[in-house]
Design brief:
- The complex is a heterotrimer.
- By secondary structure, chain A is mainly α.
- Chain A has 17 helices and 2 strands.
- A two-stranded antiparallel ribbon of chain A has the order 1-2.
- The model of chain A has no long low-confidence stretch (mean pLDDT 87).
- The C terminus of chain B is likely disordered.
- In chain B, helix 3 runs parallel beside helix 5, helix 4 crosses helix 5 and helix 6 runs parallel beside helix 7.
- Chain B has 9 helices and 10 strands.
- The two termini of chain B are 32 Å apart.
- Chain B is globular, with a radius of gyration of 18 Å.
- Chain C is 70% helix and 3% strand.
- Chain C has a two-stranded antiparallel ribbon.
- The N and C termini of chain C lie far apart (44 Å).
- The C terminus of chain C is likely disordered.
- The chains are: A mainly alpha, B alpha/beta, C mainly alpha.
- Chains in contact: A-B, A-C.
Amino acid sequence: MDSTAARAKPLTVAIRTLRSSRWAQWGVVGGLLLAAAIFPLTYSGYWIRLLSGMFMYAALASSLNIMVGYTGYADFGNVVFFGVGAYTTAILMLKVGAPLPLAVLAGGALAALYAMLLGLPILRLRGHYFAIATIGVQEATRELVVNATSLTGGGAGLTLPIPDLTPQQFYRLIYYLMLGAMVLVVTVSGLIRRSRFGYGLRAIKADADAAEISGINTTWYKVAAWMTSAALSGIVGGIWAYWYSYIQPPDAFSGITGVKYFIMTLLGGAGTLVGPVVGAFVLELISETVWSRFITLHLGVLGTIIVLVVLFMPRGLVPMLREGFKPKAWWKEFQENWI
Amino acid sequence: MDALLQIRGATRYFGGLAAVKDVTVDVEEGEIFGIIGPNGAGKTTLLNLISGLLSLSSGDIFFRGQSLKGKRPHQICRLGIARTFQVVKPFQGMTVRENVAIGALFGASHGSAAGTRQALQAADEILEFVGLGGKANYAVSDITLADRKRVELARALAMRPTLLLLDEVMAGLTPKEVGDMMDLVQEVNRRGVTILVIEHVMRAIMGISHRILVLHHGQAISLGTPEAVCTDEKVIAAYLGERYAKGRFVRNEGAAEEEKTVC
Amino acid sequence: MSPQVIVNGLLLGGLYAAVGVGFSLVWGVMNVINITHGSFLMLGAYVSYWLFRLYHVDPFLSLPAVMLLMFGLGYLLQRYIVNAVVKTGVFMTLIITYGMNLFFVNLALLLWKGDYRSVTPEYAGTGLQIGGLIIPYIRLVAAVLAVVLTLLLQLFLSRTRVGNAILATALNKNAAQLVGIPIGRIYAITYGIGAALAGAAGALMSAIYVITPFMGEPFIGKAFVVACLGGLGTATGAILGGVVLGLAETIGGAIVGPSYQEAISFIVLVLILIVRPEGIIGRRFFAEVK
């Protein structure tokens, strides 16, 4: 008994420090970021692209978290902002010759504007009606893009100008852009969380009426949250467009992508800061493993994961890790929920 | 000087039913103004009309001379009116301290300048005042009903209101808890907050109110001091019943236990 | 705009009613937004296809078999999976049904590949000709059967004990439990009925649309619109909603161009939600009482 206790101790001590000490947490984050920054200098190829994708999804999931996790609005169609950002960037670079940074920021700005225009009528809707409306907006926007052939190239898509870089340089650039995007979104999300704005959003999520009589202008707060989420998703979309160089409506406004990062947010823990990032990495990793080995099972595995997560881990990984896994309490709650 | 809150012909219909009909009354600054009436009399509706959760079908309500008609709840809050709910509405998923901090962050006094740290500090002070100092870090779902009512009161106080609307804040409390709450409400009033209180717990509302309005079927049927209202035949007929027909009453203000009789 | 457009819209509308009624029922009774509805439709089409291919069963005659099979599948899914999360809210059920949908689409892909299939009975391509109007037999029969099924559902709900139990559960779950209605089983039955109706719609469509594992996806959106337009949980509302959507698509398509047809249905959806979420008939059902 003594030897096992002695061996177990360092690990439990490590986990306990991590859970409680701010310094330890920041240390780990800093270390990871440093490793991420150095990574492309030593490795290349497959892993660079894989990680770029993971950063992208982490950024998207975190931006969605602002609506879903903080404000409590199920924005199922968030990918519409990704698509708007992608197309804005593509059109500006292709037709006006805008430089990448400007085009990407414009993508974010246009997405935010779209959210503002739609937000005023749609954010009045209750829970699930809002969710469906966002899907309707997403699908309608995609169809409109398909039809606006002169501007968007319609179903044939758009090809962005090819940059004057070697493949290795190009993929490294994308890697850093996506890493930067992820850091940006998570930082914004973290700042919101601690700010007056964030408190207001959480109050709205808990009880909109009570929030309103507490002095919160719920309409504007919801619109502002949606605009923020949209802008961030739009920026990521712009970078994605540059990455893939050739974009079409079904990829830019992909329902599957949208669902994927929605699930990532849930899987990791909606409402937490790092949950979406964790969820993104975990799901992408599983996705990649399945895709590379069992390509024909891809959808089915994703679907099964979704079912399992909802059934057994509704609050997500991060809260579960934080509080520790308590099987008895969990089983009891599960049984109580079963009709 | 004009009254703090002037209700003029306030009326609210739900379909064909008038929940509140043509209520006209003034609430003076500094008083504790009670509203009583049987269930369905329109008390909460009136509160909802004042706080902006419902719109007036006709009539108007003035606060410090300013019309509240058409204003949204958060605007009315900023003017200095705070309220609690009959069925408490705490912000789930947040701690007690955070709940109260919301009031400090968004209420009348601070407007848009307050930072979260100051708000959290202000929350702590107010929690001390209402007696919840030790429970600041508890999740709001983990505390008793009585404590949740205090959290809601604390949240309203954090907004630094001029006028505080309390909707059945005593409901569900034990007699001791009722006494504590009465003391708390009177202390708040002593510090300069005008209070409009709806109650069913007669001992409480009769004990602390300076004046009482009686509503019945949405209409005001009596207005006056607790003693006057107790002896008003209309009120007795509508609501109070035999036991209070005699109307002997002593105010709950430092009097010895034996001397207190409830109207 | 020719009368043919109106006729097309009505025929399409009948079909959309069948697509939407099961979805609307499940949503209205249990507050479950069932994305798997698309898979049930697709599976119904495939069952119909295989019965036609292997045993030469006319697609319309395969309806009973399809509905029975789909009912069974739906019942099991609800009883053992969805019932575990219904209480946690509409988002979770939405997501879980989305996951199940992916699973079935993948299953269909594995079993039957992505090839395009269709059911072509002898009378395909023929139709009635009245005046200058063309009314294809298949579409006519499909629309009529769709309306008949919807009305049968209405009768079932109002006249049978089980149907009444379903309605009671929809109106007040707690009260229903208090009078002894087994909610879990009622939910399973309701979901099974929804699946059966979706499967029936799929069977009706097997001779009209191309059959692929992905065929159900666009119809989920239509089902949303039909349910919202008509008001949740009402069968007659589904007919109304279906017809309105069908007409909106054909008329809108005639005015703006056929490629906008999809966009129109989604724009209609969003507008309905903004303007009048209770739908045209506007009866408040379970999902409303919150």
